[in-house]
Amino acid sequence: TEEDEPPKVELKELPPHFGYAFLGNNGEWPVIIARDLSSKEKIDLINVLKTRKKAIAWKLTDIKGIDPEFCSHKILLEEEHSPKVQSQRRVNPKFHDVIKKEVEKLLDAGLIYPISDSPW
């Protein structure tokens, strides 16, 4: 059945404190877990997740009670207008270093993470 087939996902680069674990064979049924778990904690967590695999929402449409339209982002354009790609904005050089240091602090704290497929 479709429920028994693993989702087709693209594994992306994760922040350093996270890693992938797999609930199936051959890299199937990927989940994201903390890297700093002990070996026993990882094994225990994976075993619990394997027994509760059907409780995990693998796709947006798997989430019961939430309309996918609610979670989808749409940009409504007027008919006579077309989408435009805007160039990246520049920051005042005086603030550039301040912003860079603040972003580095947030990265180090794990509050934000880089997006590897960003066009910027």
From TrEMBL:
Domain of life of the organism encoding this protein: Eukaryota
UniProt lineage: Eukaryota, Viridiplantae, Streptophyta, Embryophyta, Tracheophyta
Originating species: Tanacetum cinerariifolium (Dalmatian daisy)
Keyword Nucleotidyltransferase: yes
Record's keyword terms, sorted: Nucleotidyltransferase, RNA-directed DNA polymerase, Transferase
Protein name: Reverse transcriptase domain-containing protein
InterPro entries registered for this protein in UniProt: DNA/RNA_pol_sf
UniProt entry tagged with the keyword Nucleotidyltransferase: yes
Record-linked Gene3D superfamilies: HIV Type 1 Reverse Transcriptase, subunit A, domain 1
SUPFAM superfamilies for this protein: DNA/RNA polymerases
GO MF term set: RNA-directed DNA polymerase activity
Membrane-crossing segments per the record: none
